[in-house]
Amino acid sequence: SSLLAFSLMAANMMGFPLDESDDDEEFSGESGWIPWFCGLKGHELFAEVDEEYARDNFNLYGLRQRFQFYDNALEMILSSAPDDEELADDAFLEVYRDAAQLYGIIHSRYIISPRGLQVMRDKFVKGTFGTCPRALCDNQHVLPIGFSEELQTAMVKIFCPKCEQVYSPKSKYKDLDGAFFGTSFPQMFLTTYPSLMPLDPPRPFVPRVFGFKLHKQHSLIQKKLEEEQGPSRGGAAGSAAAAPRSAGSLPLEEDPATF
């Protein structure tokens, strides 16, 4: 259908992972633009921004000068899903480019608002964002994060609240701009919902040779646990629980691991 053809054309234009959906109902055009956009394959990390939020000029401050087709793009975001006639219009695709990026920036602001945090909490609890690729984190749910607030600077990453490391996401998300999520979201999220912070420290990897532990060989996580527990308890770091951790500063060194 023309809707599927449009999704592939948009992917070529913008680098977005708008692949064909397994469910043609996603492209039925019977809903608003926002749920249509968030329903595209590879856009599962997005929350559906409330239209009232996107209409409030206070939430749009400073965005007009960043987009060539700002007015048309905002109108598109607040309209219905595209129909066949619109998708045949080349001018539509020009505006769509700005609309997708404008929505992404509005989204980065929305998800740190009270309502947006609630929406993202539901996604986190369900595991929509995925799990930590580190085996010893025991499938800890992760959160999306960006390395920059500026568009086209870095792609989205995922942050694990347990090992407090940043990883590359699944391949279907690799082309989502990190600015669509911002650099502050995980901190704001975990500060708002401290009960979702993992209670147990991450399990360190224990290197062995033929079943025997290597003498004085400690992983970075083991050393961190020993530092948190102090010198008097350092020797028991492997078995004792670490002191409760806060959602303070998050490390933003990218780990090369992917999943």
Task: Note down, in words, how this protein is organized.
This protein has nine helices and five strands. It has helices at 2-14, 33-38, 51-55, 70-77, 84-87, 90-110, 114-126, 185-192, 220-229; strands at 143-145, 157-159, 166-167, 208-209, 212-213. The strands form two sheets. A three-stranded antiparallel sheet has the order 1-2-3, with no helix packed on it. Strand 4 (208-209) and strand 5 (212-213) form a beta hairpin.
Tags for this model:
259 residues; two-stranded antiparallel sheet; mainly alpha; 5 strands
> How many helices?
9
Going across the biggest sheet, name each strand in turn: 1-2-3
Helix content: 25-40%
- Report the strand count: 5
Q: Biggest sheet, open or closed, and with what strands and sense?
A: 3 strands, antiparallel
User: What is the gyration radius calculated from CA atoms?
Assistant: 21 Å
- Briefly note the structural class of the backbone: mainly alpha
**Distance between the amino and carboxyl termini:** 32 Å
List the uncertain runs: 1-9, 11-29, 233-244, 251-259
**Oligomeric description of these chains:** single chain
